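Our consortium's second objective concerns turning raw sequence data into structural hypotheses that experimental partners can test. To show how far this objective has progressed, the report includes one record in full. It was chosen at random from the queue rather than selected for favorable results. The single chain below, 251 residues long, was entered without modification.
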Amino acid sequence: MAVASAVVLLAGVLAVLLTRDEHAPRERASQLTTPAQPRPVAHPRLPAERPRPPHGPLGARVLRRVQLRERPGGRVVRAVGTLTGYNSERVLAVVGRRGRWVGVLSDHVANSRAAWIPAEAVELLHEPYRLDVDLSARRLLVRREGRVVRRVRIAIGKPGTATPTGRFAVTDALRIDDAHPQYGCCALALTARQRDIPQGWTGGDRIAIHGTGATGSIGTPASNGCMRAADADMRWLLRHVTLGAQVRIRA
C-alpha cells in the first residue's frame, strides 16, 4: 500500500477536504490553511499480494474508473478512479453483495451507508484487520482474523463535536510532516464525516485516527471529532492495518 503526497488539514483535529469536481479525471486534495503535509508511507503488503477468497471480510480493489450508485443499478452518486485523493490504491470495504453488484463503504456516501458498484470493476481481497472503537471506554481494539492483537487508548470528540458512530473504513495511511509534532507522526483517514461542524470551522469534515503532540488529551473528549492516539500506536497501525479495513465506532 503506497501513499503518495497529499494535503491534510490539522487544526486541533485532522480534517480532510476533497474537491468535488465530478468531471475531473481523478480526485484532488484541497489546499491547506496549515502547513502540515503528509509524506508517502509504504505498507508492507500491496493489496494485490493479499489472497483472493470467495467469502469472508473483504475489500474491493478498484480496477478502473467506476460509478458509485445509491443501489444496484440506481442513481449515480459519483464516479471514482483507481486512486484516492492521496494517491493510495482505492480499496473499499465490502459490506454487501447482490448478484453482480458489490456494496462498499466510501467517503462520498453518507456515514455508514453502502454505495454499489459492479463486481467486474473490482478485485476482491481478504481483509484480515478490523478496528472496533468504544467511545465511552476511550478505546480502540485492533482485531486480526477476529482476535484482539492490540488495544489503543484514544482521545475522542468533545461535546458538540462528538465522534460519529457507525460502520466506516480506512481509506488512506498518511505520514505527517515532522515539522508539526503537535499532530503526531501519522494518520489513518476514514470514510467517516463530521456532521456537527463548529461555527467558523473551514477545515472540512473528514474524520481520521491520528497521532498527537498533546499526549495528555489521550483518554479524554478533546477533539473536533477525530480520534487521537500515541505515536507508537499510530506507527503500529500504519505498519499493519490494510486499506479497506472496516472500522466500527460505538458510543
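The partners drew two points from this record. Confidence is low (pLDDT under 50) at residues 1-36, 44-49. The two ends are 31 Å apart (CA to CA). Both points have been shared with the crystallography group to help prioritize constructs.
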